Amino acid sequence: MKSQEIRAKFLEFFKEKSHKIVPSAPMVIKDDPTLMFTNAGMNQFKEFFLGNSVPKYNRVADTQKCLRVSGKHNDLEEVGKDTYHHTMFEMLGNWSFGDYFKAEAIAWAWEFLTEVCKIEKDSLYVTVFEGSKDADQLGQDTEALELWSKIVAKDRILFGNKKDNFWEMGDQGPCGPCSEIHVDIRSAQEKAKVSGAALVNQDHPQVVEIWNLVFMQYNRKANGQLEALPSKHVDTGMGFERLCMVMQGVQSNYDTDVFTPIIREIETITNTKYGKDEDINIAIRVIADHIRAVSFSIADGQLPSNTGAGYVIRRILRRAIRYGFTFLNTKEPFMFLLVKVLSETMGKSFPELKDQRQLIENVVKEEEHSFLKTIGFGITELQKQIDLIKLSKKDINASKQESDEAKITGGMAFYLYDTCGFPLDLTELIAEENGLAVNIEGFNKLMQQQKDRSRSASEVSKEDWIVLAEDPHQEFVGYDNLETSVKIVKYRKV
Ligand code: ATP
Ligand code: MG
Ligand code: MG
Ligand code: MG
């Protein structure tokens, strides 16, 4: 089944169950100082859950453009290295605002996966909240357990802790237990060797979480205590690309038709082959993923820049350019050429890609152009040091001194990283080509100093939302980048 059809099936299924199908909210959030990018389907419904506004429909379903590159949901470092986390992905979801609860949510999720998608029941596992012994003293989610027990074999129901099976919006607000559905797509032979149950939530690329059903039934008060919510809600989220992987019988999200047209285009442009060499594979996956994140952001009106959300987007694009530069030997702008295929494959569901194609191409091309120039400048600077070291190596014969000298200084590596946007591996690669090493210790020391400086000035967000503290002596200081990942900097006391 083509990805287009899979998306349509999901929406159709919930439409038949009286859900209003609503459009995806923008991925870039403009009117919420506490969240820069949509990172889950429920973001756009937050005010309903908080009781601040009343929904027009009490059953809703959609596919939501999400970006997970900061705060509690920061998957950036996984992207490209694994085969099932993206920066930008679609989250399919269905919601009940004070209408149906666990019984329907569980029964429908199971019906959709096993009857509509025809996923074999014995490749699915479900998880149930086991309860907690901490201050909350929550019991097991026996309600969900009973409901699942009616439809799922006992050995396929697993218990999960608070980290995996209890969802909270933030320090305060609606929260509740959740049930996740995981799928095991390994071969029968592999399954016979190790039970899938042992691999759930273990970062196994073929035993992955596909759907999370959250049952909001509590409200966490400012003093940390839980109280029952007057009306209960359902919030579910399913990874669309992961569902496509399962439905299309492939082993990686990147082997689905969501990604293959982009990957084929990268192969053609860069004259490389996906699937042969792991470094090249990672680079291709990073580029295929990041062009989506960047294109969707620009289509939402967020251009790369040096501050806020724009800076996050610039970093993502530069990360992809660097991977291309290092592993695919791309020395000229090329990512802008991928926008055409992307808008052809996804433009039907997200017309903004088609409408804004020209703009996206121009912006990406310009960014590539200027960043490649920076890389060029960095390389010249690095080459100067390499030449100096080589010269002094000729003069110095004392072997001890020679080994100390024959390293790119930590200061140079840090300068290249901090000012020119060079990742350490790029500096190492160039050094290696010249028979030199890099003083990693020195680099790490400078990096640590920079981190300490940022940390003392900020806090790092762990939650979905930052609850605005009632302290007037605070100002929003935006996002900050630490290492290659992007972390959110909250409010700084002034
Ligand atoms: P995981 O444990 O795999 O990181 P999660 O528990 O963080 O997933 P949820 O917050 O529960 O994910 O989001 C709901 C669903 O969205 C997940 O079940 C998964 O299918 C999908 N999903 C989450 N993060 C990503 C991502 N980075 N890329 C693609 N799909 C994702
Ligand atoms: Mg996650
Ligand atoms: Mg999870
Ligand atoms: Mg989850």
CATH C-level name of the largest domain: Alpha Beta
Based on secondary structure, the structural category is alpha+beta
**Alpha carbon gap, first and last residue:** 56 Å
Strand-residue proportion? 15-25%
CATH architecture type of the largest domain: 2-Layer Sandwich
Based on CA atoms alone, the radius of gyration comes out at 24 Å
Q: What compounds sit in this structure?
A: adenosine-5'-triphosphate, magnesium ion
**Major sheet summary line:** 9 strands, mixed
* Outline: globular
Secondary structure tally, helices: 17
The tally of domains stands at 2
Strand elements, count: 17
| Mean pLDDT figure | 88
Low-confidence stretches: 458-462, 466-494
Q: State the helicity in percent bands.
A: 40-55%
Structural features, described:
Helix 9 crosses helix 13, helix 10 crosses helix 13 and helix 15 crosses helix 17. Helix content is 43%, strand content 19%. With 494 residues, the chain is α+β, with helices and mostly antiparallel strands. The protein folds into two domains: 245 residues, BirA Bifunctional Protein, domain 2; 199 residues, no CATH class. The C terminus is likely disordered. Helix 4 links the parallel strand 6 and strand 7. The protein is globular and about 80 Å long. The strands form five sheets. Strands 1, 2, 5, 6, 7, 8, 9, 10 and 11 form a nine-stranded mixed sheet that branches. It has a two-stranded antiparallel sheet with strand order 3-4. A two-stranded parallel sheet has the order 12-13. The N and C termini lie far apart (56 Å). The longest helix is centred in the C-terminal third of the chain and has 39 residues. It binds adenosine-5'-triphosphate and magnesium ion (3 copies). The site of one magnesium ion has 2 residues, from loops. It comes from Arenibacter troitsensis.
